[in-house]
Amino acid sequence: MGNADATSAPSGEQAAPAGDAPALPLGLDVQPHARAVLEGAFAPGATPSHAYLLHGPSGSGKRNAARAFAAALLADDPRSITAIPQRIAHSSHPDLTWVTPSGAAEMLVSDVEEPVVAAAARTPFEAARRVFVIERVETMNDEAANRLLKTLEEPPAFVHMLLLTDRREGVAPTIASRCQHVRFNPLPAARIAAELERLEGVDPGRALASARLSLGDAAHARVLAGDRGEAMRKAAERFVRSALAADTAARPWLAMLEQANAAGAAVGEQAQQRLADELELLPAKERKRFERESADARRRGERRARTRALDEMLALCELWLRDALCVSERAPELVHAVDRRSELDEDASAAGSERLRDAIALVQDARLALPLNVGEELALEALAYRIQALGGRGD
């Protein structure tokens, strides 16, 4: 089952929604469209929609906005304005349910069946509304989407749903068409870089490169600016540069696999620690079943983390090739990896524009295949040899 932050309320008579909830600051100064839609829901005479689709790159503020908007929906009077956000931050409000996918690559029907569909039919615990936040709705499989659809079409008056996605085009049309869309734009690279310098103490050159490579994803930029991000960049750059140079004898894909496995192991360790903490609170007769279900969830989580890390590194490979192509086409101002300019100049000169374009297409195909449970090592090895077959340096 997906991770849900609140339990279901007891069934009973449906309560009418509260009047206009007091608007809370949503922190959307750099997101004018999202600010207009979400803050407008609390304007005099306005009524919040039953469903919103918040879409845009990760790190652009969707989750923080969802928390603040949920707090505004659940605040019944001015006295609760300060307390509600604190309770939401600590996952302690019974009328807020926050769901994330539990499948290795998709959201399963069990993620929405009880936490959302069944719970939405029950009256709130203490507020006049119930709020459901569902992350990564683009991963929802057909069965889960069909189960959620009826609730979206005919929700109780007290139910509000906030659906979050980094890829709007991946959301089922039947789901997207029943929501009010809220757009979050990528953050400007200069703004992200300035925050990395100010808050993280990152070197200006590295901060700008991380910001540009993140494509407006502030959360990803923070990762790229750190030690793990630097290791991922080096592994990706070594892989693609070795393939371009027809120098794959050292199997450069192994460094990428090592980074991906480390990401999976870190998620597994976190899950194991949560399991240990929760087992102490369970009756002895329920522990074996809980351990079995937790082990399955841990394996899926590790798989998701490995796949995500590999996709991030393949994205870095794709950006490297694009940067080299920009240099080759005399457009260096468009380069993302501004701290690797000499290496890009070398690859641009040796590979040539046509070969770089073909290599970009190969990396894109490999990224599309990743969620299909392909053999990861075999897929990377095949990609390296295909890029190598385009011709190495010195041809």
Walk me through what this model shows.
- Strands 2-3-4-1-5 form a five-stranded parallel sheet, sandwiched between helices.
- With 395 residues, it is α/β, with parallel strands linked by helices.
- The model is unreliable at 5-25 (pLDDT under 50).
- α2 (62-74) crosses α3 (83-89) and α10 (227-244) packs across α12 (284-328).
- The chain is globular and about 65 Å long.
- It has three domains: 32-183, P-loop containing nucleotide triphosphate hydrolases (Rossmann fold); 188-221; 226-389, no CATH class.
- The longest helix has 45 residues, at 284-328.
- Helices cover 55% and strands 6% of the residues.
- It contains 15 helices and five strands.
Q: Could you give the topology of this structure?
A:
Blueprint: H1 32-40, E1 51-55, H2 62-74, H3 83-89, E2 96-99, H4 109-118, E3 130-134, H5 142-153, E4 159-165, H6 173-176, E5 180-183, H7 189-200, H8 204-213, H9 218-225, H10 227-244, H11 253-279, H12 284-328, H13 341-351, H14 353-369, H15 376-389
Parallel strand pairs: 1-4, 1-5, 2-3, 3-4
What integer is the average pLDDT?
86
Order of helices and strands: HEHHEHEHEHEHHHHHHHHH
**What's the total number of strands?**
5
Number of domains: 3
- Helix/sheet category: alpha/beta
Low-confidence stretches: 5-25
Largest beta-sheet details: 5 strands, parallel
Which bin fits the share of residues in helices? 40-55%
Query: Percent of residues in beta strands?
Result: 5-15%
Distance between the termini: 54 Å
Neighbour order of strands in the largest sheet: 2-3-4-1-5
Output the radius of gyration.
23 Å
Task: Using the alpha-carbon principal axes, give the shape.
Answer: globular
Number of helices: 15
